[in-house]
Specification:
By secondary structure, the protein is mainly α. It is 69% helix and 4% strand. A two-stranded antiparallel sheet has the order 1-2. Helix 4 packs antiparallel against helix 5. The C terminus is likely disordered.
Length: 262
């Protein structure tokens, strides 16, 4: 079946393509990872926030959430039943993909980029204060993760608010697209890493897939494939909605917006 990009979706599609190309090009530029580091930390917060939210939705409590300098993260929660464990362990990578998809949908539905940036800032701030600072202090657990988590979360929050307030509408819109691309690409790259680490011939390294294997008895590599399939399905559905939607509304101030006829 032939899929055409609807006319009103072309500016959004061009903006998204530009963000994806820039992201990929930066992979091959020496020391460009320094520029990408804040985005990587942002995605880690989203990943760990997914675990925390899944725990709360299944009736568990969150003891702590921490982000490390190497962009890894840990979330400690109470352990519920099997269904709860499966849901919580699966939530990290799926949440990163879903958040990226949500950003794309918000752009497509003409939600102002400044509002999206402020909402993202509020989410990072809430995770940092609630589970990165207060919960560990009150439970006297995982205190070593507080300093960097607090610093990173605060800087991300201030940066997102600053961009929402001072960046032009076009720049803000592009940054939201770039954030969406980072969530999607990092989720896929992390899943590729988990797939390799889940191989029977790989060294034993703690991963979400290993946690799932311990909880269910199903090999970690199977869970890695399941998460990859879910992530690709989310991406496929989102991109179809993104480029072929017939909604009349379109995001204003896109970098590649076509001139409208009078």
């Amino acid at each position: 079946m032939k899929v055409m990009i609807s006319r009103e979706a072309r500016p959004q599609a061009a903006t998204l393509l530009a963000a994806a190309v820039i992201s990929i090009v930066l992979w091959f530029i020496p020391f460009a990872e320094l520029l990408m580091y804040p985005f990587r930390i942002f995605v880690t917060f989203i990943h760990e926030g997914g675990h925390a939210l899944a725990a709360l939705l299944t009736g568990n409590s969150v003891h702590s959430l921490s982000v490390a300098m190497n962009a890894s993260g840990e979330t400690y929660t109470t352990q519920g039943g099997l269904v709860s464990q499966v849901f919580v362990a699966s939530a990290g990578y799926v949440s990163s993909m879903l958040f990226g998809a949500l950003l794309l949908v918000l752009i497509r539905k003409a939600i102002a980029a400044r509002i999206v940036l402020l909402g993202s800032a509020g989410l990072i701030f809430a995770l940092t204060v609630s589970y990165g600072l207060l919960k560990p202090l009150l439970s006297w657990g995982a205190l070593s993760g507080i300093p960097f988590t607090l610093a990173a979360g605060t800087l991300l929050t201030v940066g997102l608010i600053g961009l929402a307030k001072f960046a032009s509408a076009r720049v803000a819109t592009f940054l939201v697209s770039f954030l969406a691309v980072q969530c999607v690409l990092n989720a896929l790259l992390d899943l590729k890493t988990v797939l390799f680490l889940s191989s029977p011939f790989a060294p034993s390294v703690p991963t979400d897939a290993l946690n799932m294997a311990n909880a269910t008895g199903i090999p970690a590599i199977i869970w890695a494939f399941v998460w990859i399939a879910i992530a690709l399905l989310i991406l496929l559905v989102t991109m179809r909605l993104y480029i072929v939607s017939r909604d009349a509304a379109s995001q204003p101030d896109l970098p590649f917006e076509e001139a409208r006829e009078a």
